[in-house]
Amino acid sequence: MSCKPTEFDCPSCKIRLVRRKNRYGYFWGCSNYPECQMILPDEESKPGKQRSTAKSTGETCPECGEGERVERTIRKGRRRGQTFIGCSRFPACTYTEYVGHQ
């Protein structure tokens, strides 16, 4: 597969995206890697939407005392779509607290 830049621009740095393949399938990455590490999912041979980032709660992690509590959404498994609070230092700190329905 060729890694030629395409007509799609990186939403982060405005340099062209490249469609790549790994063991999980296709994805889109910035041709300016490693300076820009933007990655987008592949949706019908076009770049998909950027995944949402963790939302800060402004509170310190009660387990490690160093990280910050951040709100995230579960992406896989039977709890997919549910919200939880985790430490921003993950995987160094594995603090989690479920806030969605269980």
UniProtKB/TrEMBL annotation:
Record GO terms (molecular function): DNA binding
Family matches, as InterPro entries: Topo_IA_Znf
Keywords tagged on the record: DNA-binding
Pfam families in alphabetical order: Zn_ribbon_Top1
Domain of life: Bacteria
Domain DNA topoisomerase type IA zn finger: 9-43, 58-97
Keyword check for tRNA processing: no
Protein's UniProt keywords contain DNA-binding: yes
Start and end residues of each stretch annotated as Disordered: 44-64
Protein name: Topoisomerase DNA-binding C4 zinc finger domain-containing protein
